[in-house]
Amino acid sequence: MGTDDHGTANRRPPGVYLDNQATTPTDPRVVEAMLPFFTERFGNPHSTTHAFGWDAEEAVEQAREQLAALIDASPREIVFTSGATESNNLAIKGAARFHRERRPHVVTLASEHKCVLESVRQLEREGHRISVLPVKSDGLVDLDLLAETVDEETAVVSIMAVNNEIGVIQPLAEIAEICRDKGAYFHSDAAQAMGKIPLDVAALGIDLLSISGHKFYGPKGIGALYVRRRPRVRLEPLIDGGGQERGLRSGSLATPLCVGLGTAAEIAAAEMAAEGGRISALKSRLLEGIRRRLSGVALNGHETQRVAGNLNLAFEGVDAEALMRAMPRLAVSSGSACTSTAVEPSYVLRALGVADDRARSSIRLAVGRFNTEAEIDEAIDVLATQVARLRSEGSAAAE
Ligand SMILES: *Cc1c(COP(=O)(O)O)cnc(C)c1O
């Protein structure tokens, strides 16, 4: 076994993890609940002829109930998938393809996750009419523009609940009302919202909701799609086979992962309110600490309409990539993408109309369940020190 600093040894990589919007550690309580289903309780939940199958099926159905309870849905409205990428593909392509004759139109926002945007692009190649709407400078949907865009030919409107880069919370109930008026389905990618804000699909008027296990302390490789039953939402499946998950997602369910997702939902339901307060306090400590030590720090995205753990900050005059290289023990990210020729600034920040140089100086800090005050203080110190150093080097070079 390796013993270098990059986690090849069987231990936690060094440093402070503030990238909880990329993924979260699996809660140890979740891991514990999953373990028996790898070994003793290994049955195929679709085996109906013996106790091994019944046992696994019961566990899967309990997980479905736990997940449904968190969003005030019926367990029969939950379809297990491999994650939010698959859920988003199934919701958007599934709805658009089912209704392609009478409703060939699909609507989304420019600030959505790539898997939503690419699903919509694929539908365009298949002949659907698509509208990818700009967002306001605070990252929120322009409701007037949305109302003008959605029409009687719109099959589905896909707008995320919480943005993965800037943490803003979209006005879900208002969006739902616009969709309902025109008979379009409202799909929401809730990968970043689950366990952070209440998501009552009935009260909010959401027809399709995507969930990812690993964004809220569950395992990677599992997610779910909520599919409303009344009035019934019709989808064309992406995967054909044995007809599991009401024909919408064939394939044997991964019992341990389902159990993990259900347990993560159960923990979120019990702890969301208290956890929100704790994470919000840590986030404020982080922001205040940074602002006490540095000037020229700006927040991207709406000031208040946002989830507790997210900060997307622009450090004036500092290149985010250089900053991250200078802080190898602080796990944060930028939304930028490397192309063959250059580092492209975040398309989400661009969608907000953030200038390129500000986008290039922005990083995302995402506080999560397992962060401590000591870690926040360490992060403040590292950030303040390196930003100041890079700024003084920058001005020295300019002289
Ligand atoms: C992480 C994420 C996804 C993809 O989820 P996976 O479960 O990793 O496929 C989709 N949308 C958003 C907003 C995300 O944050």
Structure, described:
Helices cover 40% and strands 14% of the residues. Strands 2-8-7-6-5-3-4 form a seven-stranded mixed beta sheet, sandwiched between helices. It folds into two domains: 28-267, Aspartate Aminotransferase, domain 2; 272-391, Aspartate Aminotransferase, domain 1 (Alpha-Beta Complex). The chain contains twelve helices and 14 strands. It is an alpha/beta fold and 399 residues long. The structure holds pyridoxal-5'-phosphate (PLP). Pyridoxal-5'-phosphate (PLP) binds at residues 83-85, 113, 115, 160, 164, 189, 191-192, 212, 215, 223. Pyridoxal-5'-phosphate binds next to helix 3.
Brief digest:
It contains twelve helices and 14 strands.
